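User: Here's a chain of 288 residues. Predict its fold as tokens.
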Amino acid sequence: MTIETDLLPLVRRIAEALERLAPEPVPSPDFDAADCFVFAPPGGLAPVPRVNRVEFELLRGIDHSRDILFENTQRFAQGLPANNALLWGARGMGKSSLVKAVHAKVNSLGSGRPPLKLIEVHREDIDHLPRLMTLLRAAPFPILLFCDDLSFDHDDTSYKSLKAALDGGVEGRPDNVLFYATSNRRHLLPRNMMENEQSTAINPSEAVEEKVSLSDRFGLWLGFHKCSQDDYLAMVDGYLAAAGIEMAPDDLRREALEWSTTRGSRSGRVAYQFVTDLAGRLGHTLPR
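Assistant: Prediction complete.
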């Protein structure tokens, strides 16, 4: 028996062990399965057959931002230049709802081109964005990447992956991919984080520039501010009309304002929560 014969079984076992340790190849995404997906690292896309969204026409009090984002998205879907967008500002004012509503509206109009695909990327998966961009580069569809409630905490360096994916790298962002994000922060990083870096840096301005440069990767900034009482009541009226619920105007106004007072805010989210409560008390169902 030769030495080679003795070692052959051992070599085979080592090769089999290495194959078990190696990651499975990422399957090619099936974009025909749906128009909306959720990114599941390392490279999988889970189709979403039924998207939780608000109708485009029901978004009130944000008309200017709504129209700007729609036009930007429509140009992108038509193969024209468009900007990455950052939707920032007051909570509950329809930032994430607007992204999903615009996606549905653009696809409903049709353009004779492949439909726009929406892929939601969770905040904790930002590190995988460069790999996802590579995966999507050859896709035969325009693709809108969407990250809801994007922000970064102290000692979080994953924002550098986002910077590289949005605008950096040798290849640059794929022409068929656009990135939308929502955040309560305009600059995505805590103010005290930037102030601490500024106080300890040899060149304070350079430390701040490093953090602020992330927001600069978004060519379109849309601010969302707290709504007025009239806008809040218009939101309530719109949701009630869509649900086919009727109520005496004076009673509706009194209850809606009382609801917003107990919540300490007025927003689209608060308006929908009030309508949900009212529909339940009246025995009505809400359209999905």
